[in-house]
Amino acid sequence: MAVWFDDEERTQVAAALDKEVPGAAALGAVDYVERLLTALDHDPPRVWAGPDGWIALGPWERQAWTERIDELRAVYRRVIDGAPAPDDRRVLHAHACEATYGDPAYGGNRASAGWQRIEFPEPLFPPARGKP
Amino acid sequence: MTDCDAIVVGSGPGGATVAEVLTAAGWSVVILEKGRNHLIDLAPPHKPLRHFANDEIAFGRRHLLGPDPTLEPRTYRRTADDGDRLLTGEVNNLPSTVGGGGVHADAKLPRFREEDFHLRSARGPVEGASVEDWPVQYADLEPHYAAVERSFGVAGEDGANPFAAWRSEPFPMPPGDDMPMALVSAAAAERAGLHPYRAPSGVNSVVYDGRPACVDCGFCGGYGCPIHAKGDPIAALQRALRTARCEIRPDAYVTQIVLDGSGRRASGVRYLDLTGYPDPPEVELRATQAVVLACGAFETPRLLLRNGLGGDLVGRYLTYHFQTFTVGIFPGPTGSERGRSVTHLHDDLMIDTPELRAAARAANLPWLRGGVVEHGAGTGPISEASSYPRGDAHLTSMADSALRRRLWAFTMQGEDLPQAPNRIDLDPSVRDAWGLPAGRVTYAPHRHELAASAYAVPLHEALMVDAGAQAAFSATSPPQDDIERHRASSPLGVAPASRHVMGTARMGTHPASSVVSPEQRLWDVDNVLVCDSSVFVTASGYNPTLTLAALAHRAAARLADTGV
Predict the structure, then answer these.
(1) Would the pTM of this model clear 0.95, i.e. be above it?
(2) Fewest beta carbons less than 10 Å away: which of B48, B258, B437, B564?
(3) Domain boundaries B3-204+213-559, CATH class
(4) Does position B176 have pLDDT exceeding 50, yes or no?
(5) Contact A124/B54, CB-based, under 8 Å?
(6) Residues 26-45 of B with CB under 8 A from A
(7) Where are the domains of chain B?
C-alpha cells in the first residue's frame, strides 16, 4: 500500500477521525484516508472498487480526482499542523463515516465490524476486496 | 461509421427507446453519450459489463455514474432576486453515463392517467401558472406505453389501482415481492380509505428477456443493478446493438447541431471526443435523416440554448416533482436493508375528491393535485451516519438508528405547475471543464404545490402513527423556510432534490407557445427531435420515465413511419 502519513501523522489523523466517529481509527479509518490520498498512485486508480476489481478512470475523471485529492491532501496537512480550516471538519466527519460504514474494499470497516455494530447485513454483491 | 441515418444524443430511456425503434425499422443509428460506459459491452454479443456492486461509496460518494461536479458544475437560484446563483455544484444530477437516468433509478414505472394529458380542459387554468393540454392524449400513447413496458420489462398487478387508466394488455410480469413494512403502511392507508397498490416497476420479478429476477439486494434507488434485473434501459440498448445497425459512442460531448445551407435542417452534430486529453478532438458526424436529442430536461435545453435553436421558450416551464417526505420512526426495524426501495404506491391525492376540493377552496385555488405517494425506505449507513453529530452522540444515534433501521417514509411526488420564470438557462460565468457555460436552474414552487404539500402532511403523518410509528415528521424538497439552515445541515440540500426534471422544451400545436410539435420536432429545425421529458407540457404527479419513453417510442415510430 502506498504510504502518505508517517507514524506521528497517523496518530494525529487517527485522533482527529476518532473525534468524529469514536472507534473509527480502530476500524481502519486512517488506512481509508491514506488509500484515498494515494488512489492515483495505482493503475487502475483505487477510486471505484468494482466487482471484478478497481475500475479505470477516464482522463477527465483523473483530472477531477487529481484536483479533489490535492484539496484533501491540503486538508490533512492543516489537520496535522493543528490549524484546520472551518470546513475541514466536514471532510473529517465524511471520511470517518465512510471508513466506518463503507465497504471494506476501501480500507476501513475492518472485517465488516462497523456494519456488525449497527446490524447492517453484508451486501449480496460486494465489490472485490483484494489485498491492498 | 462516419455517416448514419440518425444521431441520437443521450443513451438514457428516451434515447435507448428511439434507437431500438429506428434500428428495428432498418435505420442506422449512432448514439452519442457524454458520459462513460459502465453498462454494456459495446462488442457483440453486448453482454452487461460488471462494474456495479453494492457499494455506497462508489455510487453515493464518488460519482461513479457521473457527472462529476468538478468537471460539470451546475448552478441554482430560486429567483432572479437571489443574484446570479445561490450555489454551484450538484443540481439535479441524473447520471451522465451509458443508460442515463435508467441506471440509478429504482424504476418505478407508472403510466400517467387520461386526465394528465388534458389538465386544462379537465380542471381549468390556475392563475400564475401555464396549465395547458398536451397535443397527445392517453389513447394516442397507450399502444406505446404497452410497447415500452414490454421492452423494459415492467412488473405490476393488473387491476390493483382503481384509478389507473385503461390498458390494452396485462403487465408483462407479475409484481415482485413486497417489502414487509410496505404491507404495514399500505394497511394503514387502506384503513384511512386510501387505495394503495403494488408499484409498477421495471425490475424483473421473474426471469425476463434473458435477464434474471431481482433478489432484493437492497441497493436499488441510486445504484446500478449488479445483475441487471432492472431493464431500463439496458434491454432497449441491447436490442438496438444486436441489429448491428447501432453504435454507441461514450465520452462524446455534443457541442453543436450542424445545420445545412437552408438553416432549417440539421445535417449532423459536432462533438468533443473526451477520450482525448487535454485537448479533446472535435469530431463531425453526419446524419441523413434526423438528429434526436435525448439528453434529459436539463442538458437538452442547455444544448439548444448554446446553439440558439428552438426559440424563446427553450428552458422555460421547468418542472420537478415538489417532494414532500413524511418520515415515521418505528419502535423496531422496518427491514428496509432489503427490497427495491419502494414497493407500494397510492394515487389518491391525484384524484378529484370533495376533500381536495375543499382544501383548494381554502387555499383560494381552483383545484389541487398532490402526487403519487411512494411507500418505502432505503437509506445507506454512510448517508445515515453523515446526518448525525460527531463524538459519543454519533455512536448513540447510530445504535438507535432512527433515520435508517427504524425509518419508513412516504414520498409524495407532488405535481408542479409550469411557470415561465422557472427555467434552465446558461450561467453567465460558471463554465464546465471544456469551457462551455454551465446550466443554471431558476426555480421556485407555485403556491399550488405548497398547498398540496400542506394537505398531504397531516394525512401522511397520521397514517404513519396508525401504522405504528412512535413519531412522524415531514419535510419538503426544495425547503421553504430558512435556506441558510438547510444549507448547513440538510442532507437534501437547498436545490430541488427531485431527479424528475421536466418541461424545458414543451410540446404544443403552435410555435408561439411551444418548442416542439406534436411529433416532437423543433418548430425551427424540423429534423431535430426532442425525445426526453423536456417535452412534457405538465408534470403530472407520476414518475416520468415510462411516459417519456412511450413518447419517444411514438415519435420514433412516426419518424421511421412504422407501426407500433
Answers:
(1) yes
(2) B564
(3) alpha beta
(4) yes
(5) yes
(6) 36, 38
(7) 3-204+213-559
